[in-house]
Design goal:
With about 725 residues, the chain is of the alpha/beta class. The protein is built from 25 helices and 25 strands. The protein binds ligand C2E and calcium ion (CA) (2 copies). The site of ligand C2E has 24 residues, from β18, α15, α16 and β22.
Amino acid sequence: MALSGGNKIGGTRLRAPLMVSLVLIVFAAIVAGGTGLILTALSNMAFRADLLDVQRAEQTASGALAAIEQQMGSAVSDYTSWDDAAKAVYVDHDRDWIEKNYGIFTGAGTLFDTYFLLTADGATTMSYKDGSPFSVRLSDYFGQSFEALEASLKSEMGQGTYQKTGFVETADGLAVVGIAAVRSSQGGLTVPRESAVYAVFARHLTAPVIRQLARNYVIDGLQLVSSVPPDKSFAAVRNNKGDVLGAFVWDLRAPGTRSFREVLPAVCWGIAVIGLVLLALLVFGIGIVRGLMADEKAARTLAKQDLLSGLFNRAGLHDALVEIEAEAAASDQSALLIYLDLDRFKEVNDAYGHAVGDQLIKGVTAGLRHLLPKEAAFARIGGDEFAIALVCKDPEERCAAIEQAIISFFREPLIIAGRVASVGASMGIAVSPRGVLGSAELLRRADMAMYRAKATRSGRAVFYTAAMDEDRQARMEMANDLRHAIDNDALKVLYQPVFDAHTRLLCGVEALVRWNRPGHGLVPPDIFIPIAEDNGLIGRLGEFVMRQALEDAAAWPRISVAINISPLQLHDISFVNSTAALIEACRFPAERVILELTEGFFIRNPDRAKQSMAQLQRRGFRIALDDFGSGFSSVGYLREFGFDRLKIDRSLISELGKTLKAGELLKATVALASSFDIPVTAEGIETEEQAEYVSACGCDELQGFFFSKPVSAAEISSVLQEAGWTFSAA
Ligand code: C2E
Ligand code: CA
Ligand code: CA
């Protein structure tokens, strides 16, 4: 358990951070999905592009084969459908011409590299290769495809077809071959078909030829292979029967894959950047979430924290107590609660101001925090009220130690802002064995014990006892009975005569309330007045006494009537007006009324007191400072507030003759009062000596059992009558 300040987070109210996380996750998923889609699309595109390229290459390669065959066709046509050739072959038999025009072209031209001239019966009359004659048997040189080609030409000669081209295997490899009958430039045979001479041209698909093709048709790595490859795209080289003689293969350009590879780094970079941005967003988001959580935690801590001291506030204490009780129950120990109320804090606050009061609270907080056990929960639950709670095995010992520490702490005066403030502490203690009481009851008991400590002013901590509850019960019953008495006008008012010190004649009375409580007898006002104050009955009680006193006193000429006023009555803002209204209703002269006030009211609320006093005095009432000499008895009040009379408390009178100091004090007080022109009444005179002494000191009015106890109104009337209504002027 922490010393102070709420600091627990429940796991429930984190909706905002959760939302932020969810949004981020969804965002991340969208980006990841988008990235995946883009990559898939790109790779699909690459695949499509590759496929298209393959198709294009196949078409181009096939086109190249067709073109080379077509070229051969044109060349064959040029060289055989030629009048000069027909003349040289059929008419002149000019071997020389033929060699020059056909043979040597096999060396120079690019159209063909091999040449055969055949007679009608198939015999070779001339053959050239690469520009030189060469002798080979035609049937040895060409493969079967040639025979098919030749046969197809010869079979179609009747329909006017004089030349054929096709791919043929030769002893030197694969070649595009053209075979044609030598004929006129117009295309017709100049000799009978049986005597026709044939020219055969061949162009081999050599490496240079293939390279040239590759260049012209833009096919990388074009190669001729002997058989169709199983796993590559190819263009088959077929003879005119459709048999596959070989195939062109090439390097796949794979432009899609290549482009894909080229753009991939950029795409990767893009994705990386997006990823980084996302990461940054995530970090940022987490920061926000953390901030929100911290804010929430701070807000929750703040809600349980007292701002001035930084300790738990009442709500924080409540939570801490619940935990402490639970811990005590679980560990078979006791929960201990010490309620601490500063004494004289109000005086410091009133005298030095709130800023000093605040500093005093801080100073006390710091001091106590230092001496309290670290595991104790420490709270400030009101202006000057603190609470200390802890779990322990031995509550009596722990309490004694803490009490001792606190008492010695307060024994030293505190220096606050250069001023010395001497405050004390009243402590009430309650123990909850094994946490059985529950926090509310524990608080109630410690609070009650603290009030008892405050009332007894013993300066020691008071443990809660069941008797306190009984006492409280008794007070509650008394309050009920008192309320009943007020409701039924069952209270009585007696009057204690006041005498002139010189003439010893009756000059006034003090109204004193009496209550004969049924079943209990007379209850002293010292007992029931505080109960009336605590239970909100003092206003009605005071009003009853005043009305009664004014009614009774109406029959008595000129003597003054003193009425005790509780500070709480003056707190009621309507008091001045209602008192004025009452006195008007009774048609009683306000000048004959003395309102007796104790200094407590002036200490607590000097400004309000001054204001109320002035208002009452303006309406003719006189104000006496009652019970002087019993409490703080600051002569400063005499000067500051302009009282009309001072009443010396009987506790001081009873000391006369016993201690020297009492006489000195009395003399000094009366002297001071007369210096301010304030007359002094001495009350509680029980002996002739006291009467003489206080008269000699300068008290002008005397009151006490020596002269008379409080008596009924009727007795006052008969005394006055006996005296022939002689009295001293007030
Ligand atoms: P107090 O204002 O000091 O009233 C004088 C008290 O001293 C009275 O006690 C009176 O009976 C007592 N007394 C007078 N002469 C002597 C004496 O020679 N020896 C002794 N031992 N006592 C003497 P009481 O009537 O019991 O009143 C006690 C206190 O209760 C009063 O003290 C006053 O503070 C309060 N009180 C009484 N009546 C009222 C009232 O109507 N309203 C308010 N607010 N307070 C009242
Ligand atoms: Ca009095
Ligand atoms: Ca008194």
